[in-house]
Amino acid sequence: MFRSGSEADADSTGFTNGVNPSDHCLAGRVPNKQRQARHKLYTDITLWLYLNFGEASLTGTKVAQQFHISVRTLHKLFHEFNDSATFASFLNDIRMRNARNMLRDSLLGHLSVGDIGWLCGFSDSAHFGKVFKKYHSITPGQMRNRAHGDDEPEASC
């Protein structure tokens, strides 16, 4: 409702003419657009990580260069949009979940544990085994054996 000059005094909200600055078409939109742009960038980065997790030389610096941002900005994006993961832990999580799935896949049984580690971005099979065991509480070989029903050692005669 339009108010005349004498009614232009502050209403119960404390704003004159019933106009609340937060209702203004620009109020609040700039930060939202900036946040949306940052969220899109974060989403693009995480998608790119899912597609490129197997690169052993993948680092925060390389990802930042790929997206033309600073390493600090990369880390800030993860802090802003992922409460539970840093860049490094997010990448490690992708690698470990993919390694687990590959070890369980009977069609990939011809690949060695080291090969799977290499495909998941680990250039050193010993390091892969150590990280895998820390993450899953079992070794990659044990994961493969459990997935293929070879959990129990063979009985000796």
Automatic annotation (TrEMBL):
Gene Ontology MF term list: DNA-binding transcription factor activity; sequence-specific DNA binding
Keyword field contains Transcription regulation: yes
Lineage top rank: taxon: Bacteria
Keywords for the protein's UniProt record, in alphabetical order: DNA-binding, Transcription, Transcription regulation
InterPro entries, A to Z: Homeodomain-like_sf (IPR009057), HTH_AraC (IPR018060), HTH_AraC-typ_CS (IPR018062), Tscrpt_reg_AraC-type_HTH (IPR020449)
SMART domains tied to this protein: HTH_ARAC
Transcription is among the record's keywords: yes
Domain HTH araC/xylS-type: from-to ranges: 43-146
A Pfam family recorded for this sequence: HTH_18
PANTHER family in alphabetical order: ARAC-FAMILY TRANSCRIPTIONAL REGULATOR, HTH-TYPE TRANSCRIPTIONAL REGULATOR EXSA
Protein name: AraC-like DNA-binding protein
The species this protein was found in: Advenella incenata
Highest classification ranks of the organism: Bacteria, Pseudomonadati, Pseudomonadota, Betaproteobacteria, Burkholderiales
